[in-house]
């Protein structure tokens, strides 16, 4: 957990993010790309992970593994789901010609490709609602057998819509996100001392952890820009009392940084 300084970036940087103090809250293993992207824009980045990702032992894991080749579709909602799924396979090969993969987001598709498998379906919008629509179009009629692989805190929109359409759906929980209470004191200090110009969230879990960390400091958040990686995270932030001014159109690190730049350009009427 630390700050990446931008002294190497010229003051005449073309980015309105120059010298902005930006707090990022994603897990430490996943934060370097976002940190480096912001630092290249001249931002002063502080990384304080507010959640940790942990594997989950699902009581039905052996059941799913034995029947893995019987599914018509295996669906991943995140790159974390892909990673923990293949760890559970423990070297088993996916040899079934019946099973196809669907994912939410290009990052998840890349994680799947890194494991030697190809996503047959990657919807344009990075939310469960769009994946449900696209998957049902692919399935057509009949009762397809679908395995949803994801987190303990994952949304249930996809499973509910697939079941309502007649699909046989199993949900395999392979990981969970837990709040990092050990980070709360540092976050409170940063907000209390007004050392953050912006706070970026890449998950709803991080929003919820942040809410606990800053209890009683709402007034200190006035003027702090909130950024969210997508509409689901933005909705969670709004419900928690932190409406997002910058919401990524494409739920990626690049999309989040672009949304933040766009907001600052409008705020300061920034021109090259």
CATH class of the largest domain: Alpha Beta
Task: Please state the average pLDDT score.
Answer: 89
The H/E string reads: EEHEEHEHEHEHEHEHEHEHEH
Total number of beta strands: 12
Which CATH architecture of the largest domain? 3-Layer(aba) Sandwich
Instruction: Give the count of structural domains.
Output: 2
Q: In this structure, how is the largest beta sheet organized?
A: 6 strands, mixed
**Radius of gyration in whole Å, from Cα?**
20 Å
Shape label:
elongated
Number of helices: 10
Strand order within the widest beta sheet: 1-3-2-10-11-12
Strand content: 15-25%
Distance between the termini: 32 Å
Q: Enter the CATH topology name of the largest domain.
A: Rossmann fold
Uncertain residue ranges: 5-12
Which structural class best describes the helix and strand composition? Answer: alpha/beta
Helix percentage range:
25-40%
Q: How does this model look, in words?
A:
With 272 residues, the chain is an alpha/beta fold. The chain folds into 2 domains: 3-50 and 180-268, 3-Layer(aba) Sandwich (Rossmann fold); 54-178, 3-Layer(aba) Sandwich (Rossmann fold), CATH 3.40.50. It has helices at residues 32-40, 61-66, 79-89, 106-114, 128-139, 157-164, 184-192, 204-213, 231-239, 253-268; strands spanning 3-4, 21-24, 44-47, 51-55, 73-76, 100-103, 119-121, 145-151, 168-179, 198-201, 225-228, 246-247. α6 links the parallel β8 and β9. α3 runs parallel beside α4 and α5 (128-139) runs parallel beside α6 (157-164). The longest helix is centred in the C-terminal third of the chain and has 16 residues, at 253-268.
